[in-house]
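Hi V.,

Quick status before I head out on leave. The structure for the redesign project is tokenized and pasted below; the design run finished overnight.
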């Protein structure tokens, strides 16, 4: 048993821990872990952060540093990439052969001596199959392939990187087609490799979906690159968005050996961007040939129909001529009969109209005579009545005038004065009351044979 001193320095404690680990765990271990972070310094040493996640693939349950010395890293990296077609990168699950190391400054770490590429290939395949199975269980795996491919694929949304060689090859190949077909393309630029690939492609798909009416299809192209870039498209999220997309999706991610999950769920999958361009051009050629064939069929069918109908028309024209003559003759006879009947009816109506007119004239003359006789009697009676009324009115007015004349003679002032009355006035005004006079007033009194002027001396 190791006898421990009463007091230790930190360095002494660290060395005890290191020695204890070396004594207890001297051999190498095969360890399954996921690369969380990876970096290579200027000396060529590779530094790793290895983690183990819970089954939910989100929460981390273990973490440790790892290192691959430059003397082993170049060999391990080259061997791993040649076998798997993948580079060592974050998110990759690996099986490493490592020895435990403890350093008094850097703590616990794993010194990696080897990496088993077969394990990573198996893990990638398992992950890929799990994504495919999940899409199949959700019933969406073949949804985009069930969309009818457009007859004339001319309006194209292209999801790619503008700087990608594959995009340039695709555009040039499409525009320089020998048939001079016109294609309308719109680039929705996004990263096509690296950790930003997944979200970038999803955002690009969402952008096109909001303007789906402007396009016939969507193309995802990446162009040349290593096999490792293929894994970015073994993404459940990208594949699911493709299955739900309202337009046909065509992929040309640029790999020859394998197909990604995105390729499997797409409406059409081709190896390279130029292969996609050739496919679109061939689709236009096929459509043009079909239209030409259809046009020829329509033209030939039309000619047959015209010839058949010409024969039918000629046959019917031969049959119709005699029938038409018979119908015209019968119509003439009917028309002649109608004309004669109209003449007869016209004459009868004219004769009847003449008799009616004479009768009406006789009745009108008789009515006028009777009316005139009656009116003459009325006029004569009115004349006699007017004469009698006039004479009576004259007599009555004569008698009334005689009475008025007698009354006027009686009321004549001269006759009144003759009867002993007088008329008194002052200043030309007749006096009717004594109250109108004052003492010393000069008054005039008129008699029947003259007048006198008096002065008022007294009033009683």
């Amino acid at each position: 048993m190791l006898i421990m001193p009463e007091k230790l320095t930190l360095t002494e404690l660290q060395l005890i821990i290191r020695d204890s680990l070396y004594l207890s765990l001297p051999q190498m271990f095969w360890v399954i872990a996921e690369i969380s972070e990876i970096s290579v310094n200027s000396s060529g040493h590779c530094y790793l952060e290895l983690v183990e996640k819970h089954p939910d693939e989100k929460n981390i349950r273990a973490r440790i540093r790892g290192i691959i010395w430059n003397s082993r890293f170049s060999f391990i990296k080259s061997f791993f990439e040649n076998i798997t077609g993948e580079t060592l990168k974050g998110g990759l699950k690996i099986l490493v052969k490592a020895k435990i190391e403890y350093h008094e400054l850097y703590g616990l770490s794993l010194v990696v001596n080897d990496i088993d590429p077969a394990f990573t290939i198996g893990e990638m395949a398992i992950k890929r199959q799990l994504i495919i199975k999940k899409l199949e269980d959700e019933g969406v795996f073949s949804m985009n392939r069930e969309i009818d491919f457009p007859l004339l694929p001319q309006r194209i949304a292209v999801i790619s990187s503008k700087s990608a060689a594959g995009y340039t090859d695709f555009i040039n190949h499409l525009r320089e087609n020998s048939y001079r077909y016109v294609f309308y393309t719109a680039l929705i630029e996004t990263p096509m490799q690296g950790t930003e690939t997944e979200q970038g492609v999803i955002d690009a798909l969402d952008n096109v979906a909001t303007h789906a009416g402007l396009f016939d299809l969507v193309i995802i192209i990446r162009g040349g690159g290593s096999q490792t870039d293929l894994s970015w498209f073994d993404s459940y999220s990208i594949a699911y968005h493709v299955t739900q997309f309202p337009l046909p999706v065509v992929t040309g991610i640029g790999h020859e050996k394998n197909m990604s999950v995105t390729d499997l769920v797409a409406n059409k999958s081709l190896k390279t961007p130029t292969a996609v361009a050739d496919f679109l051009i061939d689709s236009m050629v096929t459509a043009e040939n079909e239209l030409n064939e259809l046009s020829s069929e329509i033209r030939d069918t039309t000619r047959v129909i015209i010839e058949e109908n010409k024969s039918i028309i000629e046959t019917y024209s031969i049959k119709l001529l005699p029938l038409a003559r018979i119908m015209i003759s019968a119509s003439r006879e009917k028309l002649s009969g109608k004309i004669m009947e109209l003449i007869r009816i016209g004459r009868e109506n004219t004769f009847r109209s003449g008799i009616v007119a004479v009768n009406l004239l006789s009745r009108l003359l008789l009515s006028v005579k009777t009316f005139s006789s009656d009116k003459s009697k009325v006029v004569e009676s009115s004349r006699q009545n007017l004469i009698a009324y006039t004479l009576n009115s004259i007599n009555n007015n004569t008698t009334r005038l005689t009475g008025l004349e007698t009354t006027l003679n009686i009321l004549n002032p001269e006759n009144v004065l003759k009867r002993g009355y007088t008329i008194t006035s002052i200043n030309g005004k007749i006096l009717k009351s004594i109250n109108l006079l004052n003492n010393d007033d000069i008054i005039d009194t008129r008699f029947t044979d003259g007048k006198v002027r008096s002065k008022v001396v007294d009033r009683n």
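Above is the designed sequence. The chain has a mean pLDDT of 87.

G. will cover questions while I'm gone.

Best,
W.
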